[in-house]
């Protein structure tokens, strides 16, 4: 089981991030004034690969989006793939968006 990392919403840089060792895995986002959040890019440094950090980052990001009652538009293929594997998360995807 991977360690439990703290999710940070870095509003200045428009990204969710973890701080893991010397790395900052992140999910970049754009928020609209209408309550939509577009997840545009996920990056997990190669040095952290294979530890489940990317999946944990996505899961915690989706939990935070749901907590804020935002509507998700997953533009990043990694996020879309995660939702495809965990279809329960479709509940927060903006209606009409195909994942």
Automatic annotation (TrEMBL):
InterPro entries: Acyl_CoA_acyltransferase (IPR016181), Gcn5-rel_NAT (IPR045057), GNAT_YJDJ (IPR031165)
Domain of life of the source: Bacteria
All copies of domain N-acetyltransferase, residue ranges: 8-94
PANTHER family named among the record's database cross-references: BSR4717 PROTEIN, PROTEIN NATD1
Protein name (record): N-acetyltransferase domain-containing protein
């Amino acid at each position: 089981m991977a360690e439990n990392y703290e999710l940070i919403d870095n509003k200045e840089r428009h990204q969710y991030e973890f701080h893991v060792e010397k790395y900052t895995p992140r999910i970049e986002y754009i928020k609209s004034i209408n309550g939509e959040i577009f997840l545009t890019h996920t990056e997990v440094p190669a040095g952290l690969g294979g530890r489940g950090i990317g999946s944990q980052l996505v899961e915690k990001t989706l939990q935070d989006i749901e907590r804020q009652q935002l509507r998700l538009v997953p533009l990043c293929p990694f996020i879309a793939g995660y939702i495809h594997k965990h279809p329960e998360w479709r509940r927060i995807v903006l209606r009409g968006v195909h994942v």
